[in-house]
From TrEMBL:
Residue ranges of every copy of the IclR-ED domain listed in the record: 102-284
Protein name: Transcriptional regulator, IclR family
Domain of life: Bacteria
SUPFAM superfamilies, A to Z: GAF domain-like, Winged helix' DNA-binding domain
Short name of one Pfam family: HTH_IclR
InterPro entries: GAF-like_dom_sf, HTH_MetabolicPath_Reg, PcaR_PcaU, Tscrpt_reg_IclR_C, Tscrpt_reg_IclR_N, WH-like_DNA-bd_sf, WH_DNA-bd_sf
Gene Ontology BP annotations: 3,4-dihydroxybenzoate metabolic process; negative regulation of DNA-templated transcription; positive regulation of DNA-templated transcription
Organism annotation: Paraburkholderia caballeronis
Record keywords, A-Z: DNA-binding, Transcription, Transcription regulation
Listed Gene3D superfamilies: 3.30.450.40, Winged helix-like DNA-binding domain superfamily/Winged helix DNA-binding domain (1.10.10.10)
Region of interest (Disordered), ranges: 1-29
GO terms of molecular function: DNA binding; DNA-binding transcription factor activity
Amino acid sequence: MTSVKVPVNGREGDSSPEEGMDPAVDPGLESAAKGRAKEGMAGLAKGLAIIEAFGASTTRMTVADAARFADLSRPAARRCLLTLVELGYLAHDGKFFMPLPRMLRLGSAYLSTSSLPQIAQPLLVDARDELQESISLAVLDDGYAVFVARAEAVRIVSTGVKLGGRLPAYCSATGRVLLSDLTDDEIRRHLAGVPMKRLTARTLADADAVVAAIGRARADGYSLSNEELEVGMCAMAVPVRGRGGMIEAAVSVSVLSGRVSIETLEQSFLPVLRRVAQRIERAL
């Protein structure tokens, strides 16, 4: 399962009349500054917005793409991209900008300082070896389930997201578990700001249906996603609670529906996931 993003169909070159504007006159920077504290750095925020726009379905982008993703003017987007090229985070072939390995340093800063992925990793490996399927750990970030630890099963056809991948919370088993600590009213307010889309014929993209699915996850202590993100792929997730009892993360497994049935997930896989979650909780 790859990270789900809205693909960019239109591709444009770097040159445009807007790019000839005086760099000092940038409406995008001005508007961003109005909503930011005096101590904030609007330029840094814009560069980070562009970095976050890269993903499995957006492996390269033009100036126009970056401006659209990060809600910037083209001159501001171009300056950010060229700065990232100069610093070694991006490559530029004259039209497209693409991430370089140095980009990994940004994610590794969290992974190397957060105890949660370090605690979970060996336990995920144990569960992977027992189930012979990939096991992941994710946290909630801005409406997405972000995967911070993963034990990958070796298969010809792999399933699930990669480390650092993001899935929309409303239609993923992992996301629904992570949202299940919220009240129904809080969930509805969250969904009001989320562009819910039907990714397959089975995707729940209606607020009432999503709230009900999250309610079931809250009551059952686990969530299932049956071909909602991708045809032929099912996933199950359980919560990991911190010392205060609040959900901090979710442990999940993703499988091919032709290989593992929903019945097997609930009867054989669920006890293993719950055991891993409990072991992580005890170690926190």
